[in-house]
Q: What sequence folds into this?
């Protein structure tokens, strides 16, 4: 198949051609070495057109109803005149084989809407790779005119930190069983949550949800707020029955306004860019290390020696690093 | 020498003789474990009966293991009841009359998918499915044509309807009234088993909680007005068809029944006022012994469950059931073999003591039965009833060491699964957590892997597969003509009815739902009399209840696990890994279910298998239109779309998908079709841009390999 020239990607994305948006994300996702130059070229051309929207991370434990929440929340955004992009960070790597992407099954209305673009990403082998692809997909979607980007993630390992590092606002969903819930939320997570929502507040769960919200509110008082002028609201909602979404939307807007007025939004993004640069440096270093001919040559030998106990790990590491830094 | 010494000695003798015959192989090598977790051994003896409580209880006596009635078929044979529906009310009506004349003893109506889902035939979502898998019914007028010349006062009518139960039952009542037959004289059954729809078949409309209110209202209405009508047919059949083993089918069916009883009791009814009108529906597959045992165990378990509600009427604890031979067990390869399969399954149903039976026609796996195949199917039962001595003896397997032991063990396995449901807080709660679906899907993926590997053998599929296949003639439905007909009739009705009265009746329905008062069936009957349509009454409630969206579940690992050590499997994975290295990502496939058919076992098993092979698999929502599927394919930028179709909609929907992709500049995305596609339709699909068709019985691995070939060809150019 003939390669597609960079202008077609760039113009297509800028014109909102869904086929080219899809293909541009594929290009940026590609792990093939030959795609790298082109991908970088496209990304560089699109970056100046991105960044005008609001990037929202949505996290929560399995079963909390994230996709249903995204479906309903996304609809509210569209009703307010926004265009919504949905991405997911799902690092659940599989031993072998591919992945099953069922996101759209849970978002049937949003997925058939012209003002929404949902791109489920296959599970990657490492979080770094997943993070890079999601970050770049945000650029593509924003350059295509989507101004509310929802990044769905699971509260597993470091994925929440990664999601917080590429978004402006972090919404955490919780379940209405107060006692266990506090313990279920990692302390580290609480430090970057801007909005806490107790979901599934419907039917016979309403009271439990109120109670959970109350307990969470008290727990939050003891914590350092993520932004100086922002006290984290704790709201209840039922995405399934579309209850309480209005309030959440208002809180989001309020946060957005506050962050823009105070200049914190721009500052936060600058900090994120810096952190991102270093993340890329680390990722690049690792990749170069893996591909370094001299390292490759001795790697197996040293691994066997360490395994057999003939060489100390520190000594072997030093040897590999020396090979890497020595001029070829 | 006493008796026990003597039998021990005989047993030792048998052991020696058996081992001699095995030439060194251990006797244990002949044992095998069934998917239900029961060990089948070559010899059962008296000791296998130890501890079985039901021994010695004759038929017609609680717990009814040996049958619900004292003399069983010796007194009265089972009812031959063939499920059928032919696209239009006129064609179906002609078929019913003919069937009744030719020995049929009741009629059974199959509706098309838009009717099931509460859409009128002129709804845009209905286009591919009108009249495809059964008869399209939009209003009382269609109902009247359907039963024209059939006396509803003395013909028992069974209706397979779960989603749009209210307008269908309402329309049936209204049509009967206009025939001069009052509600109180109507006989028959409405399936009305919504729980299993959420579990496997997905032909639901509203979410679980309001759906249970509908069930409760129907039970209440019928216990007062329609005392001879069976209000629910609690169905295990669809669970089996979706891949459940006998223990899962048994356990979940009984547990669903329990949930309905609890719903009716919560509505204030006395248990004896409705429980005798609950009936069951089981699927009968090829595991002959297990299936006979299943029906015997089902009666035992139901009597146990109902005992806890302390009924006074013995009929409340008595399980009466309809059975259908397994559609899943039919093969499109060597289709005449299906006659043999159906005969074996019919015998299992009869030995198990069923009250009525549907025998599948040999081409039922591919299409609606033709006249010829329907006759063979019907006669299979007539032959069993009239040419054999089987009906002369009630529960002839009673006392068989093996059968009694299997019955007991199967009941035990089912009790364990039922306890798990109880622990989850009952069936409605369990369904919300997705547990039963996961169990069934796991069973299904394992079963498919066993078949693909050849451990489970199927003649024509993985044994003696023919090289050249002679396709039997199958009935083809001209969907566009049916659709136009229905649309014309709808326009006529809407033009001639009292519009204000109809709108008033619909508003009342909405109001009753909103305020949780009144009886929804009473109100629907009123609206249907006034010529409201199926779609309108459904929409009136949808305003309040919304439409249910299924929760996604997909499981990986189960299929691949069964292939771990297989060389072909490893080779295919390597091909896929090569592709991923070359292309920078794994091959990505969207599996789309087009149209209103909700059977998703096939597509889920394929998803699990493809993911285990190394594909990235996107799943589309159920009930997608071709255009929606194309949009999703483009956004996810997949290499391939696999469209799954089971209900005959492929001839309209697959070409529409090809066109929709083209319109989006995505003609390079390969389209393949899987599911029930008759051979004769394949050339047409290929001509219209479909790259490959995977018929029933295609092993998942073979489809995977073929898809990779198509991708290779597509890339190399």
A:
């Amino acid at each position: 198949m003939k390669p597609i020239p960079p202008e077609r990607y760039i113009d297509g994305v800028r014109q909102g051609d869904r086929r080219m948006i899809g293909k541009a994300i594929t290009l940026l996702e590609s792990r093939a070495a030959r795609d790298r130059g082109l991908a970088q070229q496209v990304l560089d051309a699109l970056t100046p057109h991105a960044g005008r929207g609001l990037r929202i991370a949505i996290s929560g434990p399995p079963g909390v109803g994230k996709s249903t929440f995204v479906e309903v929340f996304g609809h509210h955004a569209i009703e307010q005149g926004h265009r919504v992009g949905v991405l997911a960070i799902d690092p659940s790597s599989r031993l072998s084989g591919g992945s099953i992407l069922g996101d759209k099954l849970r978002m049937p209305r949003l997925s058939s809407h012209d003002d929404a673009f949902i791109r489920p990403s296959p599970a990657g082998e490492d979080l770094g790779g997943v993070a890079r692809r999601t970050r770049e997909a945000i650029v593509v979607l924003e350059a295509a005119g989507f101004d509310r980007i929802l990044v769905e993630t699971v509260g597993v390992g470091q994925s929440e930190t990664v999601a917080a590092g590429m978004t402006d606002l972090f919404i955490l969903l919780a379940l209405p069983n107060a006692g266990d819930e506090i313990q279920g939320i990692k302390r580290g997570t609480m430090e970057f949550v801007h909005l806490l929502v107790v979901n599934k507040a419907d039917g016979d769960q309403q009271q439990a949800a109120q109670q959970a919200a109350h307990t969470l509110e008290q727990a939050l008082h003891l914590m350092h707020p993520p932004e100086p002028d922002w006290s984290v609201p704790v709201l209840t909602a039922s995405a399934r029955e579309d209850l309480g979404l209005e309030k959440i939307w208002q809180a989001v807007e309020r946060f957005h306004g506050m962050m823009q007025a105070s200049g914190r939004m721009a500052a936060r993004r600058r900090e994120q860019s810096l952190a991102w640069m270093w993340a890329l440096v680390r990722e690049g270093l690792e990749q170069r290390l893996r591909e370094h001919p001299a390292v490759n040559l001795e790697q197996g030998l040293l691994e066997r020696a360490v395994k057999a106990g003939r060489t100390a790990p520190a000594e072997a590491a030093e040897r590999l690093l020396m090979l890497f830094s020595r001029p070829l | 020498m006493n008796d026990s010494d003597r039998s021990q000695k005989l047993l030792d003798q048998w052991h020696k003789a058996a081992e001699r015959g095995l030439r060194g192989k251990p006797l244990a090598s002949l044992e095998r474990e069934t998917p239900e977790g029961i060990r089948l051994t070559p010899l059962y003896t008296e000791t296998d009966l130890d501890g079985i409580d039901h021994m010695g209880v004759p038929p017609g006596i609680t717990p009814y293991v040996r049958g619900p009635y004292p003399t069983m078929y010796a007194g009265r044979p089972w009812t031959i009841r063939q499920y059928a529906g032919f696209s239009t009310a006129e064609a179906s009506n002609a078929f019913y009359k003919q069937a009744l004349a030719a020995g049929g003893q009741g009629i059974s109506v199959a509706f098309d998918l838009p009717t099931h889902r509460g859409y009128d035939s002129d709804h845009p979502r209905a286009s591919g499915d009108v009249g495809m898998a059964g008869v399209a019914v939009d209003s009382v007028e269609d109902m009247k044509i359907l039963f024209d010349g059939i006396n509803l006062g003395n013909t028992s009518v069974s209706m397979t309807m779960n989603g749009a139960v209210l307008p269908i039952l309402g329309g049936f009542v209204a049509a009967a009234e206009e025939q001069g037959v009052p509600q109180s004289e109507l006989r028959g059954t409405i399936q009305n088993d919504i729980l299993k729809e959420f579990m496997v078949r997905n032909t639901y409309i509203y979410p679980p909680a309001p759906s249970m209110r509908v069930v409760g209202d129907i039970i209440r209405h019928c216990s007062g007005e329609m005392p001879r009508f069976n209000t629910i047919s609690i169905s295990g059949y669809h669970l089996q068809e979706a891949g459940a083993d006998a223990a899962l089918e048994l356990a979940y069916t009984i547990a669903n029944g329990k949930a309905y009883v609890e719903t009716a009791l919560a509505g204030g009814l006395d248990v004896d006022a409705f429980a005798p009108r609950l009936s069951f529906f089981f699927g009968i597959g090829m595991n002959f012994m297990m299936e006979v045992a299943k029906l015997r165990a089902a009666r035992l378990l139901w009597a146990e469950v109902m005992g806890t509600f302390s009924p006074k009427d013995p009929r409340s604890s008595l399980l009466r059931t309809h059975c259908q031979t397994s559609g899943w067990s039919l093969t499109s390869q060597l289709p005449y073999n299906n006659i043999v399969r159906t005969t074996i399954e019919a015998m299992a149903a009869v030995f198990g003591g069923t009250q009525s039976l549907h025998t599948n026609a040999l081409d039922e796996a591919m299409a609606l039965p033709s006249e010829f195949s329907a006759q063979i199917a019907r006669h299979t039962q007539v032959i069993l009833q009239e040419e054999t001595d089987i009906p002369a003896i009630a529960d002839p397997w009673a006392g068989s060491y093996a059968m009694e032991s299997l019955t007991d063990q199967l009941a035990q396995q089912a009790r364990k699964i039922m306890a798990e449901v109880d622990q989850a807080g009952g069936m409605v709660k369990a369904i919300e957590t997705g547990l039963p679906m996961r169990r069934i899907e796991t069973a299904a993926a394992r079963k498919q892997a066993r078949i693909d590997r050849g451990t489970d053998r199927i003649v024509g599929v993985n044994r003696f597969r023919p090289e050249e296949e002679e396709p039997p003639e199958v009935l083809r439905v001209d969907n566009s003509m049916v659709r136009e007909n229905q649309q014309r009739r709808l326009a006529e009705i809407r033009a001639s009815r009292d519009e204000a009265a109809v709108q008033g009746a619909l508003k009342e329905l909405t109001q009753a739902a909103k305020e949780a008062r009144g009886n929804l069936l009473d109100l629907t009957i009123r609206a249907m009399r006034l010529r409201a349509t199926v779609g309108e009454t459904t929409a009136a409630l949808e305003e309040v209840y919304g439409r249910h969206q299924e929760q996604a579940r997909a499981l990986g690992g189960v299929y691949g696990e069964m292939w771990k050590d297989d060389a072909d499997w490893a080779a295919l994975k390597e091909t896929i890994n090569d592709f991923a290295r070359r292309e920078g990502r794994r091959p990505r496939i969207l599996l789309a279910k087009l149209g209103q058919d909700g059977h998703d076992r096939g597509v889920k098993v394929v998803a699990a298998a493809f993911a285990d092979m190394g594909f990235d698999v996107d799943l589309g929502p159920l009930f997608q239109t071709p255009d929606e599927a194309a949009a999703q394919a483009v956004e996810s930028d997949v290499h391939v779309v696999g469209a799954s179709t089971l209900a005959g909609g492929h001839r309209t929907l697959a070409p529409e998908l090809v066109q929709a992709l083209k319109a989006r500049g995505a003609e390079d995305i390969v389209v393949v079709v899987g599911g029930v596609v008759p051979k004769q339709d394949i050339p047409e699909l290929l001509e219209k841009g479909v790259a490959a068709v995977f018929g029933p019985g295609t092993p998942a691995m073979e489809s995977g390999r073929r898809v990779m070939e198509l991708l290779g060809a597509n890339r190399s150019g």
